Amino acid sequence: MNIVTTQRDGATVMSIEGRLDGHHAQAAEAAFIALAGEGHTRFVFDFENMQYISSAGLRVVLVAAKKIRSLQGRLICANMSDQVRDVFEMSGFLSILETAASTEEALTLVVS
Amino acid sequence: MTDQGNGSGRDTVIRLANRLSELDRLHAFFDELGGRSDWPDKLKWDLTLSCEELLTNTINYGFPRDDGNYLITVAVNVEPGRIEITLEDEGIAFNPLEQEQPDIHLGIEERDIGGLGIFFVRKLMSEVVYERTDAGNRIVLRKFL
Question: ipTM value of the model?
Fold first, then answer.
């Protein structure tokens, strides 16, 4: 797993690349917590180069969603592949998270 | 990875240590096996996910005394029309089928992640069998194609 963070148009884009699984979830959570600790509240999670996600990865997204809500910020999950989307769908997360088909769309939503 | 024989009906086996970093080897194992067996991506994903969920649980909770290294065995048996995966560990007794199922309709505030991994396994596999053995736990997953 690799995480690329970009500040863009007043939002923080976290591109999570590779596998967000039981091995890498803790590192991803730490990266998010550090960014939130710096005062960022508007996030786009970009899954374009995500190869795989399991419940350990979903847990990180849920932790982030709860934290961002408590900060009255906004989180949009963008660019899910069909298989990543299936996992979110199975978990019921698609109905509690905001998603976008592209990073551009997510950036428009996240600062609106 | 070792093959116990070649051809259908034989087991392909990987043994993993009780460390989360070993999950990387699990992914490589299924990538290789899936490529060799011409599995569709979705099937490979579902099998890998089911094993990873169970292994992550076992590694995190199966060895609470943290007193050394244990091996967890994953054996895949492919036959026409069905794939069977047997996971064996020497951890404390844990029957995932007795775990409470998550409520997937709750909102963000109320939502908890507990039990989601096992929920995925039950949803993705055709059969899940748990057996407490003398040495530890055995879980058999079957996927009918």
Answer: 0.94
